[in-house]
Amino acid sequence: MIIAPSVLTADLADLGNACGEAVDAGLDWLHLDIMDGNFVPNLTFGPPVIAKLRKALGDEPTFDAHLMIENAEESFQQYIDAGVNHISVHVEAVKHLHRCLTAIRAAGATAGVTLNPGTPVEAALEVLSEIDLVLVMSVNPGFGGQSFIPTVESKIRRLREAIDAQVAAGGRPVQIQVDGGVKAHNIAMLREWGVTNCVVGSGLFNDKASVADNLSIIHQALE
């Protein structure tokens, strides 16, 4: 199970040190929530901040960018140039999905698709052979602190079946990532459903304990 801390829930006034704390705790993925105020009702950060983080943290952490934006097809290269390793785009926001995914991979990053809670799983199955990751939103995108939507279980299990069949036929392995309301009390359940990558926000970054201590609680839950 890959644990990808959502840096949006960290102290944004001290983002470099917060991300460094996560890396020092042994987390080698950082989940970057990119919001444009149009596709979702919130604004976050963009390539200049990401480039500064990359310079501060070095080459090792995987920068996992979740583009909640309307112009991903035109702007994804900026994120790759800033140091992003993986880009997930929303099927609801991209006009020419296959073309966009192919271009992201050709530019040197791995590519994924994101499904909102109300989006049918078939949208990802159409491009399953072209991607490295499916991000299943278990909350509606735009803000942190929302409650987990349990009805995503059927979507995740359907993806697990399709990915396993694709791999058995000699095709590409694809990660299933879940974002939204993931904490110690439900992460083992997600693994049982077939999830391989979990985005964790306030379950890691909070005022109650350090990232390392919170990560230990998550690892205990997985054991």
- Count of runs of 4 or more consecutive helical residues: 8
Evaluate the radius of gyration: 16 Å
State the name of the first-level CATH class.
Answer: Alpha Beta
Strand order of the largest sheet: 1-8-7-6-5-4-3-2
- Return the structural class: alpha/beta
Number of domains: 1
* Overall 3D form: globular
Q: Point out poorly predicted stretches.
A: none
Binned, the helix content reads 25-40%
For the report, how would you describe the main beta sheet? 8 strands, parallel
Q: End-to-end span in angstroms?
A: 11 Å
Order of helices and strands: EHEHEHEHEHEHEHEH
Textual characterization of the structure:
It is a single chain. The radius of gyration is 16 Å and the shape is globular. The termini are close together. The chain contains eight helices and eight strands, in the order βαβαβαβαβαβαβαβα. The protein is α/β, with parallel strands linked by helices and 223 residues long. Helices cover 36% and strands 19% of the residues. The model has no long low-confidence stretch (mean pLDDT 95). The protein has a single domain, classed as TIM Barrel. Strands 1-8-7-6-5-4-3-2 form an eight-stranded parallel beta sheet. Strand 5, helix 5 and strand 6 (133-137) form a beta-alpha-beta unit.
